[in-house]
Every structure is written in C-alpha cells, then in structure tokens.
Amino acid sequence: MTSEQSTADYIRLLDPAVRPDPYPLFARLRERGPFRIGTAPVVVVTGHADCTAVLRDPRVSVDRSLAKLQLGFMPIYDATKTTAEQVKPSFLFLDPPDHTRLRRLVSKAFTPRVVQRLEPRITEIVDDILDKYSAAGTFDAVTDFAYPLPVTVICELLGVPLEDEAQLSHWSSLLSRTLDPTSRQAPESRADPAELERAGTELSVYFERLTERRRADPGPDLLSQLIAAEDAGDMLTHDELISTCALLLVAGHETTVNLIANATLALLRRPAELAALRANPERAQGVVEETLRFDSPVQLMPRIAADDLTVGGISVDRGDLVVMLIAAAHRDPAVFPDPDRFDPARDNRHLAFGLGAHFCLGAPLARLEARVALTRFAQRVEVPRLTTDPPVYREHVNLRGPAHMPVEFAAVLPR
Ligand code: HEM
User: Fold this and answer.
1) How many CA atoms lie within 13 A of 269 on its CB side?
2) Which helix or strand (DSSP H or E) is residue 44 part of?
3) Transmembrane region positions (predicted)?
4) DSSP three-state, residue 392
C-alpha cells in the first residue's frame, strides 16, 4: 500500500500543476522511505543518508546500457553509422576508465583557480545586463537577467559564436528534457521523442561544422584545445569530442540559469534577506548554497545497479534503475534542522552538485556566476518587486526553474 501511494505521488511529480511547489509531495515521499515502482526495475530513494550511500556505492553505475529499462539519452549523429550505433553518450554517462580519461581532458578549464580569473569578466557581463535598465521599469528576471550570463560565459569558454545562441538554447532546452523521468501513466508529460532525436542530431551537426572551422582557425577556447587533443593522438575520438561539447553546452546553459532564477525568487520573497545581502555582499555565498539545497536546480539523479545490492532495506537487482530524489533529501530533517526554512547561515551538506566521481565539474563556475549575479542584483536594483507569485515554471521536472519572473523596480543604480 505504501509503495502504491508512493508510486502515485512519484507520478504526480510529472503533473505541471505541481511545479510551483513540489515540496509537500517530496516530503510525503521521503517520510514513507525508499520504494520500488510496482514490479518495474526502478527503485526510488528519498532520504539524505540513502542518496549519499548510493552516490558513494562502487556497485552503481551511470552506464545506461546496463539498465533493464531503456532510458532517455542524448543522441549523437554520425552519418557513417546506423541508427543503432549512433548513440554516443557523454562522459556524464560513462564509467571509468573512459570517464576518467575524458573528464581529465576538460577539468583543467574548470578548476577553482582558473575559474576565479573569470570574475572580472563575469561582473562586466552582469553589469552590462543591468545597464540596459536604468529608469523605473520592469524586466523578466529569468529571460532578461538570469539567462544571459551563464549562456554568454559558456559560449565564450567553449568558443561558440554568441549569435548562434538562440538556436543552441532551443536544442539545449529540448535535450535537457531527456533527464526527466517518464511514466506510461502520464504520457502527456513526455517530450516528443522524434523532436528530441532531431535536436540531438542537429546539435551534433552544428558541432561537426564548428569543429571544422576551429580546426582551420584555432582560438584560445576549450573547443580548440579539445581539437588539439584529438589531433595529438589517442586522447579522445571524434565522437567523444562532439559529445563532450554537447555536454558542456547543455550543462552550461540550463542549470546555472535555474540557480540564479531560483535564488532571485527566494530573495524577492524575503525582502529582509535581500536587504541583508545588499548591506553585506559576503552573504551571497550562503544564499547560493542555501538555494542549491532549498530549491535545487537538479531535483533528481539516476544510477543503474551494476550488481545486486540493498538500499534503505529495499533489494535492488542488477540492472535496476535507482532514482535519487535529491530534492526530497535536501529537506531531510535528520540532516537539515527546520528544513522548510530558507536559512543562508546553515551548515549545508546539500547534494545539488552530486558526489564522488561525477561531482559537477562546473560547480566553481556556477557558484561564482550566481554569487556575482545576486550581489549585483542586490546592490543595483532598487526596490524590486515580483509582479506574479508563484511564477510560471518551465515544463522540465528535473532541471527546475521558472520560465518567466516579471519584476518591477524603482530604478537600476549606475555601476
Ligand atoms: C547550478 C548549476 C549546476 C548544477 C546544479 C549542476 C549539477 C550537476 C550534477 C548534479 C552533476 C552530477 C550528475 C550525476 O552525478 O549524475 C553534474 C555533473 C556535471 N556538470 Fe554540472 N551543474 C551545474 C553547472 C554546471 C556548469 C556551469 C558546467 C560547465 C559548463 C557543468 C558541467 C558538468 C559536467 C561536465 C558534469 C559531468 C561530470 C562527470 O560526469 O564527471 N555543470 N552537474
């Protein structure tokens, strides 16, 4: 019975009506504990200790080919191969040794020290965004404020022309829906598989063409470095180069926008927090970490059992999918006292960037972008006010964030 109730609640997470506040559902799911979805090869894990145990367990894998149930993935196009051969997963979906080799190739670009050097450029981009608004007025805190910063930064880092951004954003938004759970009982919540496949193919063709251009005319960007690594020998194959670019582009596009938007929403709903941040920019770091916990941009993470194991008293069979409800774990009172309270000062052991070998490579960059964006928003936007609360949410279940957030303000101060 408990499992049936939990399965029904899990499927309700797909209902767009739940999007403004899924947290009561997550709380119910966590209180009942881990469960199997009927007789399906899917186990859902909800508490902080169980999610942490799964993320640390060497018997779980990210390799979706091991799963008994076929999962969404990012298709990659290669004209010389048959459809069945075309799927080349990025290193997010690879185990060692391929994961280790590919991650190492790009990790140098994302170390805290290298990322720290981007702070002046990031501040300049945020100030340029805010400069467009000076007199009293209104802007959309998602499309006009949260969105342009991460997108500009990842395009500059990768060496992707900013004028292609609208097209890239369309593909990226579609492809990130492959990270959403699906259910036969809620077919209307599914993205169109043909549309997803087309987006994957078109994004790959785009990177094929860009790679050709960069090969002829290299720059200081990450793409040129990856091309040099491919040319240098056996460090990465051409397919791996394309799937790595697609991963970085999608990761750089989607999640950080949601972090900035979710944090801006939390501050607008708490004017005292916003005033405190304005008076003391040091508080930004706490606000960012608490947003990562309280309204996590990534709500769930999947793994595949590569062996039989037990999680929270539930048997998991080899090939089962294990879905970790990170958003539920983030409100676990065993780890976070008074978990429904937004408290930037709390000791924050959130799992928003994952844990272990696949810990988010872009975490230092995302943290820096969000810290600068929130600080400049607090310092420069006078008397901001949400005009619609709750805002309209994106259709995505896993990568959570508002689609639009109109804000009125008295003025934007000069920089
Ligand atoms: C707030 C922003 C972000 C959040 C919440 C986030 C979250 C995550 C999470 C949870 C994972 C691990 C997934 C898993 O273990 O299954 C991950 C992996 C990854 N993220 Fe992020 N991410 C963010 C921003 C970024 C940015 C800006 C980049 C880079 C441009 C990036 C690049 C990556 C990459 C390459 C991986 C794969 C790491 C691996 O498999 O070794 N992320 N991210």
Assistant:
1) 14
2) strand 42-45
3) none
4) strand
